[in-house]
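Field log, afternoon session.

UNIT: design team B
ACTIVITY: writing a sequence onto a fixed backbone
BACKBONE:
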């Protein structure tokens, strides 16, 4: 329906106004039939909807409607401009997330549609398509496609350094590295796994800039945490990138010392544990420090100090005795950011007669980071026994272990003390 106001003047055949009563003239006004068009835009390869394609819709001047009128631009916002002397631009329209443009209220006639701008990653379709609006209430549907601009990403994975476990030199190609290819929206569009030659190549993907993120490293190598940026710029391009993984280095350290090499019956002995740490370049699970004490006839423990560490982690303390080799865990959980002075003296612990603590361990509850280390010494105070002969030697052993996957790394240290009997007092002689 034409909603615009129309001014009508009625005249006779001589173009004179009709006057007088009863002078009536029937005026017939025709409305142009209106219709609608729908454009459906899809990917020429996948058939998926394509969002963001911009189209220009224009009317053909020589197109005719039912009443032989020239089809002009519809809508108040349409530009009344000529293109090559043939077209009147109706407007620009952009496909939505479903790849669709709906255009309504088009007068009957012939129109053209042409893609002005293709979405990123697609070739522009420069074809000019004609379509007709019939005004019969049936929408005119145009199914159009864009060809994606496709390229590939080629990855080469190499050893960053000499690997002690595999014996491979720096620059050796590495199999088994897995990378995700992530687009600008954070979506993973492909995944690469390097083969025996250390290379992998992606499936065809659209042009654009992608991030390559390693999610699995080859055996005995660490994941390279640095994301790689790769850009595909043109059709058929293979964008190459080289990445290196560091060798896994597993190492822990510990040192056991004391303030004496000799003792006598009943002397106080102070043991120290220093140099404990994760010297690996990866985090270690099940990180445990263990101290095995001498035969309780040689010395009995009084207290244990857990030391001060470089980072706060939670750990549990457990002990075993000469009468029970199964570990008993002390109540509660300790933290490594402060010293904990733990009383292990048999009488104070309520142990059985003749039962003494012979082993102590600290079990960390979470994986400890590379570089985690003991900053202030762990210590153990003991009292030397009186049941051994002169020159008897006893040894205190300490070790530290950690686990990376199924690999266990350990280090140990010990300290030996020689016992001597106290000198007997000589009887007084001479008067």
């Amino acid at each position: 329906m034409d909603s615009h106001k129309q001014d009508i003047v009625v005249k006779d055949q001589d173009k004179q106004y009709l006057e007088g009563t009863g002078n009536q003239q029937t005026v017939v006004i025709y409305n142009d039939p209106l219709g609608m068009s729908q454009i459906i835009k899809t990917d020429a390869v996948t058939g998926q909807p394509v969002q963001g394609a911009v189209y220009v819709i224009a009317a053909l001047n020589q197109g005719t409607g039912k009443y032989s009128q020239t089809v002009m631009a519809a809508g108040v916002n349409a530009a009344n401009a000529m293109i090559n002397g043939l077209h009147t631009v109706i407007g620009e329209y952009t496909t939505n997330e479903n790849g669709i443009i709906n255009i309504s209220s088009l007068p009957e006639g012939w129109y053209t549609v042409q893609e002005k701008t293709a979405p990123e990653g697609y070739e522009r379709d420069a074809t000019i398509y004609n379509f007709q609006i019939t005004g019969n209430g049936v929408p005119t549907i145009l199914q159009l496609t864009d060809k994606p601009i496709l390229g590939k990403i080629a990855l080469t994975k190499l050893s960053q350094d000499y690997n002690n476990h595999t014996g491979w030199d720096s620059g050796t190609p590495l199999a088994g590295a897995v990378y995700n290819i992530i687009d600008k929206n954070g979506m993973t569009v492909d995944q690469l796994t390097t083969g025996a030659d250390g290379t992998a190549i992606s499936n065809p993907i659209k042009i654009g800039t992608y991030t390559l993120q390693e999610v699995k490293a080859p055996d005995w190598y660490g994941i390279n945490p640095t994301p790689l940026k790769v850009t595909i710029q043109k059709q058929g391009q293979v964008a190459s990138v080289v990445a290196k993984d560091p060798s896994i280095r597993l190492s822990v350290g510990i040192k056991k010392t004391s303030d004496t090499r000799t003792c006598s019956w009943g002397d106080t002995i102070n043991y120290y544990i220093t140099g404990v740490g994760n010297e690996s370049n990866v985090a270690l699970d099940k990180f445990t420090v263990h101290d095995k004490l001498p035969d309780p006839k040689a010395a009995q423990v009084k207290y244990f100090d857990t030391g001060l560490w470089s980072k706060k982690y939670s750990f549990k303390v457990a002990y075993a005795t000469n009468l029970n080799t199964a570990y008993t865990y002390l109540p509660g959980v300790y933290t490594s950011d402060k010293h904990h002075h733990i009383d292990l003296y048999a009488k104070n612990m309520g142990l059985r007669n003749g039962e003494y603590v012979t082993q102590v361990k600290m079990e960390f509850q979470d994986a400890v980071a590379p570089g985690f280390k003991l900053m202030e010494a762990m210590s153990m105070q003991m009292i030397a026994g009186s049941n051994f002969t002169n020159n008897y030697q006893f040894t205190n052993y300490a070790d530290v272990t950690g686990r990376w996957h199924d690999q266990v790394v350990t280090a140990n240290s010990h300290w030996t003390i020689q016992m001597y009997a106290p000198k007997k007092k000589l009887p007084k002689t001479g008067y």
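LOG NOTE: Residues 1-6, 12-20, 61-79, 82-87 have pLDDT under 50 and may be disordered.
NEXT ACTIVITY: expression trials, pending approval
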